[in-house]
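Hi all, posting the design record for the shared folder.

TITLE: backbone redesign
STEP: 1 of 1
STRUCTURE INPUT:
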């Protein structure tokens, strides 16, 4: 009799980005930047900042603070964040259903994000979205580390950096046009699938799994 371990396909694992994929972090981040500006006396265009979410915090802060203060300001921002940004941040349309669809298919859902991991977990706990794992502090190609470690065959994100991370991990890149990058930009970057938002994910997944089998 054949060894079951050699004939059984590995369990499906789907990775999800967080900001602008599972959560609409613009209201919370805008409020946090406004509070940071008041606290430090430094002008920050919060409305502009939330149009370019995705990269690590330091890449935004460098636009407003000198390099030698970035670590200090990042620590202050992250400390302020829970009391300002968590309650102000809603889930994206279809987010909960997308995670639930992976579970219903017998798979595992993980979140891999550039966001500071403790704050990422607070967002998901507040919204009642419960992935199997949350890995923070990884951006773009760095995300491939976690995707490979957890055996993710699909990575869902909204940014060109998410597409690069999926491709480096040799995972299917499913992009949603809900963040700062257009559907055309995501396709040009190499996304395998582009959806308008996560509301179409369960139907896509239902078709994807038979194809895998």
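Okay, here is what came back for every position:
SEQUENCE:
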């Amino acid at each position: 009799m054949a060894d079951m371990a050699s004939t059984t396909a590995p369990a499906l694992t789907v990775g999800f980005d967080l900001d602008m994929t599972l959560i609409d972090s613009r209201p919370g981040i805008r409020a946090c930047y406004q509070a940071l500006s008041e606290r430090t006396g430094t002008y920050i265009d919060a409305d502009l900042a939330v149009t370019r979410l995705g990269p690590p915090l330091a890449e935004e802060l460098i636009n407003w603070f000198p390099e030698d203060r970035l670590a200090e300001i990042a620590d202050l921002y992250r400390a302020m964040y829970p009391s300002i940004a968590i309650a102000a941040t809603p889930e994206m349309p279809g987010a909960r259903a997308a995670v639930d669809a992976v579970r219903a298919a017998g798979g595992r859902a993980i979140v891999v994000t550039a966001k500071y991991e403790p704050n990422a977990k607070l967002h998901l706990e507040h919204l009642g979205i419960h992935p199997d794992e949350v890995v923070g502090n990884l951006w773009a190609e760095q995300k491939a580390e976690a995707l490979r470690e957890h055996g993710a065959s699909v990575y869902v994100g909204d940014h060109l950096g998410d597409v690069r991370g999926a491709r480096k991990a040799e995972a299917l890149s499913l992009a949603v046009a809900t963040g700062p990058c257009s559907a055309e930009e995501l396709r040009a970057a190499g996304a395998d699938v582009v959806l308008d938002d996560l509301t179409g994910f369960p139907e896509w997944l239902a078709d994807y799994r038979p194809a895998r089998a």
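COMMENT: Residues 1-9 have pLDDT under 50 and may be disordered.
Let me know if anyone wants the other runs.
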